[in-house]
Every structure is written in C-alpha cells, then in structure tokens.
Amino acid sequence: MFFKSTLYAGIACLTLAVSLAAGAIEARAEQTIVDAGGREVKITDTSRILSIGGDVTEILYALHVDDQIIAVDSTSQFPGDALSKKENVGYLRALSAEGVLSTNPTLIIAAGDAGPPPVVAVLKSSSIPYIQVPDDKTPEGVAAKIRFIAKVVGREAAGETLAKDVDRDFALLAEQRAKIKSPKRALFVLSVQNGRATIGGANTSADAMLKLAGAENAAAGATGYKPMADEAGVDLVPDAIVTMQGGPSGPPTDGIMTVKALAQSPAIKNRRIIEMNGLYLLGFGPRCARAARELMVALYPELALKRASTAE
Amino acid sequence: MTSEALPLTARRAGTHRLSPAQVIGGLAVLLVVAAIASLSLGPTGITLSSLPRAIGAALGTHTDAAATREQLVLLDIRLPRTLLGMFVGASLAIAGAIMQGLFRNPLADPGLIGVSSGAALAAVATIALGNGIAAPLLRPLGIYALPFAAFFGGIITTMVLVAVAGRHGQLMVGTLLLAGIALGALSGALTGLIAYASDDRELRDLTFWSMGSLGGANWPKVFAVLPFAVLIALMAPWLIRGLNGFLLGESEAFHLGINVERTKRAAIVTTAASVGAAVAMAGIIGFVGIVVPHVVRLLAGPDHRVVLPGSALLGAVLMLVADIVARLIVRPAELPIGIVMAAIGTPVFLHLVMKRGIGGME
Amino acid sequence: MLTAHAATFRINGKTLVSDIDITVPPGKLVVLVGPNGAGKSTLLRLLSGELKATSGSIELDGRALGSFSAAELARRRAVVPQSTALSFPFTVREVVMLGATVPGFTSAPEHVERLASDCIRTVGLLALEHRLFTQLSGGERQRVHIARAMLQLAIAERPDDAPAILLLDEPTASLDLSHQGVVLEEARRQAREGRAVLAILHDLNLAAVFADELVLLSDGRVAARGTPAEVLRDDLLSRAYGCEVRTNITPAAGVPFVLPHAIRNR
C-alpha cells in the first residue's frame, strides 16, 4: 500500500510538472506587442490563428505553428496544405468583416496590405487581437518579419534560427553577387495580353529580386508594372526573361514568344526564359533568399554556385 | 402605328395590371422580410435572437465576450450594412426611374448623365494617386477619402454636363444625352490613363471597387447618406407629377402646367445626388437602375406615382437579397455584389418580359 | 380673353410670323387656315405661351402671357397637339387622366374619374378605354388628346373664372369622315358653352362649315379675316396658296363630291 501511494504521488507530481511546463509555454503567449501599425495589442491566446498574407502564412508554417492556424487568405499559396486544409477568407485586399469573425480566431496576424480599410477598421475594433506585420521588402526586412512573427506566437527560439538562416543565405548571396564580373540584363514579365507584355520596372518586388540575384533590371527606366511599348521593347535587349509560372491561360513561355518587340533579344534567341512560382519569387517570405539564389543560378550557370546550407 | 385589329388578349399588359396598392403594399412587405433576413443571416451564424444581448452589450449591461461579439456583428456590421444596402438599392433604382422619365426612354440609365463615370474617375484617381501626388489632400480624410472623392467626382461631372447642355437658359435633353456620352468616354480615357500609372496592388483594388461591395459599410457611412435619403424623399413626390407630364413630350408637359426647366434640373440634381452617394459608398453597381423600374412598370404601369416609390422599394429588396447571397455563398469570403445582382436579376427579368411582354413599347 | 398685338416671332434670322393681330373671343370658334409654312403652328405656340414673341405682345385677361406661370396657364387654357411620341405603355384612360395632372387641382378623385369617363365617351373611345395608347391609330390617338384637353378644362374651370381657352393644332388630321365631324362638333359645342376656341384646320371645307371666324395666314401675316364667306374668295385664296383657286364651282356632271356639311353622325 505504501508502494502504491508513492506510485500515485509520483505520477501526480510528474503530471503536475508536465502541465506546469506546458502551461509555462502557453502562459508565455500572454504579452503586449506593438505592431507595425504602431498599435499596442495584447495577446492572450494563440490557439486559433487567422493568417492573412502569403508570406505570413509561410512563416507560420516554417515556425511549425501551422496546427494553430484555422484560416488563411487566398494568397497563402505555400505550402500547398494551407489552402487545401484551412478555411479561405478570400483575397487579402477584399476581406469580409463578418466572414473573418465567423472563423472565430483568437488572433489575427495580417500583412500590411490587408484591406479594404473599413473592414480592417472593424476588425481592429473587435475584441480579437489584430497584429499588423512589418512589410519591408529587403533582406533585413525578411529577417525582421520572421523575428516579429516568432515573437507574436511565442516561438522566439525557432524564429531566431530561421532568421539567422535567412541572414546567412543573404550574406552568402551577397558574396556570390560580388563575384559577378559583368551583370546580365534581365527582364521580368508579369503577363502577356494580345502580344503585349507587362513588365516590372523600378520600385517593384521583381526589381528588388533581380537586383538580389545580381542582375540588372532591363526595365529600370519604367516605374511599377507597366505595359511595354513595342518600340521601347526593342531597346531593352534582355539576356534573360524572368516570369511567373503558368496560370490557367497556359505556359507563359508561349505567350512571351508572341511578343514581337522581344523577338530579337538574346533572351528569346537563346531561349533563356526562367519561370518561377509567383509567391516564391515575389513574396519576400522565408524562402526569399533561396528564390534569389535559384534565380542567380539560372542567370549565371557558368558560375557553378554551390547550394546553400538550408535543406528543402 | 396602325391598330391592325390587334386582339385585346389578356396577355397584353394593358389590362393585366396590378393596382398601385397591391404593388406598393406587396413590395413594402417584401422589404421588411428582406431587412429582417439581412439582419438575421451571416457567416457567423448569429441570429436576431441575440439582439437583446447585443443591445445589452452596447449599453454596458452585458460585458461577456459572446455578447460583445454579438454586438459587433449585429449592431456594427449587419445593421449599418442593411441600412446602407437599402439606401444604395433604393437610390439607384429611383435614379433609373427618373432618368427614364426625363429622357422618355425606358432604356435610359442613371449613368447617362455622366455621374457614374465621374465618380469612377475620382475613385480611380484616389486609389491610384492617394499615396502619391494627391496624398496631402486625401490623407486627412482617412478611410473616407474614397467615398468623398467619388461623390464629388460624380457631382462635378454632372454640373459640367448641365452647363454644357444648358446654354441659352434651356436644358436640351438631346444635347444632355450626347454630352453625357462624350463625357463618359473622356472619363473612361482618363481612368485608363490613371490605371496605366498605377501599380499591381492599386489595379487590384480598382477592379474590386468597380465590381461593387457593401462590405465596407459602417455607421459613419450610414449617417453620411442620411441627408441624401432625405433629399430624395422630398424631391421624389414633386418629381412624380412632372415626369408623368413629361412622358407626352416637353411641349405637352408645359401645356399641362408643368414647369419644364425646373423639372429637368430637379431630376438631374436628384439623380446626381443619389447616384453619387450610392457609388461613393458601394462602388459601381449596375443593373438596378435599368431593370428595377422596368419590372415595376411591367407590373403596375408607367404612372410615376407607382413607379418611383415602387422602384425604391424593389431596388432596396433586390440589393438586400443580393447582399445576403454575396456574403454567404463563398463564406468566409465574399463575392462582389454587382456579380450577384446580375446573376439573380437577369433570369427574373427575362421571365417577366416573356410572360408579360415588353409592355407595349414600340 | 386671349389677344395678340403686332406679334412677331423671329428665330435664327428667319421671321416666322410678323405683325399679327388676333383675338380669340369667348363663345366663338376661330379657325386658322393657310398653306404650309404660313406660320399657323408658330402662331398657335405663341398663343399657348410655349413661344415668346420677339416683338409685340400676347395678352390673356389683360395680362402679358409671359407673366403667367405654367401652372396658372394650364388652368386657363388647354392645347390639343398635332401628334405626340409616347414610348411608355399608358392606357387610353391613363393618358386622358394626365389632363388632371395640372398642379393645384384639388378635385376629388371620383369627380375626376367621372369627368374622364364623360370626355372619353364624348370622343367615342369608351370601347378602347383600356387599350394601350401605343396600339391606337393616329386618329384614335388624336381623339385621346382631345379628351385629355377637355378633361383639363373641365376640372380647371371654376364658376367665377373667365371662360377657358381651347387650342387645337390640326385636330382632324388622319381622322375619318365621321370622326372629323365629331371632333369639330365638340369644338363648336365648347365654343357655344362660352369657351374661346381656336383651331388650325387644313381642310377649307371643314373650316367653311364650322368656323365662326376664319383667319387666313400667308407668309407669316394675316392675309384675310372674317366670316368664311368673306375669306374664302378666289382672289384671297389664290394669292395665299400661290395657285389659281375658284370657289363654289361644282365638278363636271357625273363626278360626285362629298362635303362635310352633308355628313351626319348617327
């Protein structure tokens, strides 16, 4: 009988210790954060997270808190599980106030882009904590974003690891960029309509990515995503064309081949057309450095770059 | 134009009319039902049975999380949305009826006087330039920059139009129509120019705005449209008599004692104000202005004493029904309301036209 | 009483009517005749208040016509137009009821309904009362407008008012023989009841039968004025119409002729 009571006491203690430990992890979720919009937001419960923004969702999955995510927006295309397994609240700039509330989140983590403004205002005025994530489209910005989100969900250690990996990848990328003697001219094509291409000029995510990959943006003369004029297009002479992977209208390469102005460019002549997934390339999420690297490898195969340390 | 012994069958709309009381009464009942449905239905599943608790939360007697949530959904989301939806639907439909009376053409649309394209142009400019050139002007207005700009864009366009068509003291309806089309084309071109200068995100916003949505409804917007609702309610009865006379032509209207110039200007002002406010609050929503007055005419005849109030009621009902569908059908996301409106309205309209004929129009 | 003094109307450099003196006295049916382009319609529109005289004056009850508001005018005079375009599905009865649209009318609805029925019956359209206006022939539409004008005056008039004025612009165009008679009989009856009636007629024979006073217009001026016998003379008509006109001559033997005075309604 003595033995039994000791056993029971032992089990009780063990249970208590485990729950305390677990509770400690849960309890650490209670905190006050100043979000990217300057608001002080008090977080108490991170068990039901609504993630708005493809990059935000990617980071949450990378931090392994995906089982706490109950809903995402329609731009959350990576990993594939996000849209197939979680509820979809629609396009991030066309949210429905009551729709978002109906998913019953205990925490909303949103990219700065979320809209429309009146709906965001209603969500901010509800009792659900709404955290706006910083949105700096630079290597430092990506790491900062990861650290911020990690803090919000109480996974600072994992976040720090991930951020450091990202920092290291970007540093390596910068080293390899330095080795490039003559930068290639690249052109980012967003879409092709009726033989007219829409290209990425300066001040776009595409421009930033091209620069990170060590290329020169052939379209830097324009600002924003612009339709390319036929005559001006002839002067662009890109060595390579970068575009997003095919949507419902078919493989993008076919479309690009119809653009007459580019027909004489080295890119088309040498069939140097690089297709990459949209969110991967332009999302400025945790895979950003990897995407830039892939782009660099595609642009400069002769450099025979080594793969970075982070595994798939 | 000869009456070739056309048989007076019951299918001819002439004898098969519902009485004004039936139409107005029926539509009023329908509106009450639609409003209650709009307040009771939504993706959160909260129904009107939670109303007492929601009011309690608003008054401070209930402070639990569930009551607060119900207050947010019922009183801060659904109620302003229902009220705004009723206003937008009613004002677009009345504007359509007034335009059809003014132009003496059942195909006239409130957009003909340029107010929709002017509002769209201003909205596009706000979306595209609001963070750039126009920022100092628009930022102080915060989230009201867009409705404000859209409203003024619409009114200014209409004023320009009236000035162009109203020289020599007389407002020429034919000139108004042509000038409206021209200004619409100009606005479209300018809109295209601005869209060209905007980035991907802004273009996306523009697309959604031009499909219409009641999703941004809140109490300040409801209060903002209140004066317009009052204006329309005051002007409409006065316009009824004028528009009825107008149907025989401007000369005949004059002979019947109607002040023709004043009627024209009042019609335009009322239309511009109501469409400007509606477009400002909910974006571009087509279909209502043309189809709703038609349906009322098919049911009750062309007397504006029934057509104006009937259009207001039916427009409000249609908007509420479309909005309910828009927010439930892809929950928790939401469809743009213009799409739902056309999808619901078209089959109903076609059915009515086939059953009752196009009302004897030549 | 409706009078015009030296009324002239010029537009875009053209003078449509000039220096017209005309009176539409109560109790009389005045008929305007003349060739196309003589200014008959313009004169009617000046008299109805739709156009403003460039010089000269139009007076009603001693006041300048321009000083009346549209609503005041509508209580004193009604106009039957030549034709209207109507693209909405109003029934005959509804179009007639538009005559009661005048602002300020306060008659009780049953009274109006009864009067409307009377007017419709008078023009012989009771059977078509609920037919769509757009399905009627030109002549039937004309009669609807006459009924409408009659309703307008019937409701407007109060016992101590000066008699109302009825203006008809070619009311018998596209009407059958029988209906021409009906319409002009009604116009004459209105005049007998004390109203002032002015009608533009194309048909000189109809004018001869029904007019109390005939006014012949030519080139925008009054060419002749008086009883039908005084106005329908060879010289006056020939000058006005620009061709050789001989009055009171029967056709050759065996060729029949049908004149309005010999038509009776059953």
Describe this structure in words.
The complex is a heterotrimer of chains A (312), B (362) and C (266). Chain A is 43% helix and 18% strand. Chain A is an alpha/beta fold and 312 residues long. Chain A folds into 2 domains: 27-171, Nitrogenase molybdenum iron protein domain (Rossmann fold, 3-Layer(aba) Sandwich); 179-276, Rossmann fold (3-Layer(aba) Sandwich). In chain A, the strands form 3 sheets. In chain A, strands 8, 9, 10, 11, 12 and 13 form a 6-stranded mixed beta sheet that branches. In chain A, strands 5-4-3-6-7 form a 5-stranded parallel beta sheet. The model of chain A has no long low-confidence stretch (mean pLDDT 84). With 362 residues, chain B is mainly alpha-helical. Chain B has a single domain (82-356), classed as ABC transporter involved in vitamin B12 uptake, BtuC. Chain B contains 14 helices and no strands. Chain B is globular. The relative contact order of chain B is 0.16. The radius of gyration of chain C is 19 Å and the shape is globular. The longest helix of chain C is centred in the middle third of the chain and has 19 residues, at 138-156. Chain C has helices at residues 40-48, 70-76, 92-97, 109-122, 138-156, 177-192, 204-210, 228-231, 234-241; strands at residues 2-11, 14-24, 29-33, 55-60, 63-64, 77-80, 165-169, 196-200, 213-218, 221-226. Classes of the chains: A alpha/beta (312), B mainly alpha (362), C alpha/beta (266).
Task: Give me the secondary-structure topology.
The complex is a heterotrimer of chains A (312), B (362) and C (266).
Chain A: H1 2-27, E1 31-34, E2 40-43, E3 49-52, H2 54-62, E4 69-72, H3 80-85, E5 87-88, H4 97-102, E6 107-111, H5 117-125, E7 130-133, H6 139-152, H7 156-178, E8 185-193, E9 196-200, H8 205-212, E10 216-217, E11 225-227, H9 230-236, E12 240-244, H10 252-257, H11 266-269, E13 273-276, H12 278-282, H13 288-299
Parallel strand pairs in A: 3-4, 3-6, 4-5, 6-7, 8-10, 8-12, 12-13
Antiparallel strand pairs in A: 1-2, 8-9, 9-11
Helix pairs in contact in A: 6-7, 7-13
Chain B: H1 20-40, H2 51-59, H3 65-102, H4 115-129, H5 135-138, H6 145-165, H7 173-197, H8 200-209, H9 219-246, H10 250-255, H11 260-282, H12 288-300, H13 304-328, H14 337-356
Helix pairs in contact in B: 1-3, 1-13, 2-3, 3-9, 3-11, 3-12, 3-13, 4-6, 4-7, 4-8, 4-11, 6-7, 6-11, 9-11, 9-13, 12-13, 12-14, 13-14
Chain C: E1 2-11, E2 14-24, E3 29-33, H1 40-48, E4 55-60, E5 63-64, H2 70-76, E6 77-80, H3 92-97, H4 109-122, H5 138-156, E7 165-169, H6 177-192, E8 196-200, H7 204-210, E9 213-218, E10 221-226, H8 228-231, H9 234-241
Parallel strand pairs in C: 3-8, 3-9, 6-7, 7-8
Antiparallel strand pairs in C: 1-2, 1-4, 4-5, 9-10
Helix pairs in contact in C: 4-5
